[in-house]
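User: Before I run my own analysis I want an independent prediction to cross-check against. Here's the chain; please return only the structure tokens and, at the end, one sentence I can use as a sanity check.
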Amino acid sequence: MGLDMSIYRMKRCNGATLNDAWAVAHLLDFEQYKRNHPDYTKSLEEWCGYDLPKQEYIDFYSKLADSDKYGFIHTTEEVAYWRKANAIHKWFVENVQDGEDDCDAHRELTISDLQKLRELARQVLEDPDKADDLLPTQSGFFFGDTAYDEWYFDDLRDTIKMIDTILASTDFNTEALYYVSSW
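Assistant: Structure tokens:
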């Protein structure tokens, strides 16, 4: 176990959130399971905790759904991933999640959010003495080390690269980004 952190990209559909897109993926997995196990009687909510998504979302995201090598259906794309980069996580919690550290998707990420985080990472890499002020580490049972060591600075370099790639490859008019963590 440990702190896993991701940014997911999804196509926009009339106010749908990441949880709406994920609900469609779970619905498609659920329907597939029920076809293979006709005696299964539980509901979608019992299956995965999601309510039935709006039909509009089902129609839209079903067309975009893709299966991974394990057969799980996805309606979103993971475009960034960190492991135990607790300073980056702390920044997202404070700046995107209103201080709520609850392993849930919150508001949509903006270009400005990504640019701010990238600029802070650059400033710390240019002057490591600013680390504790600009991107401080955060302790937690599954959050990894809190030292300002080479691992910390590698996470900052990786963050800059991932953000550059995301900014260059995302159409913010037709796609939305969300940060999600788990531990």
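Sanity check: The chain has one domain: 4-182.
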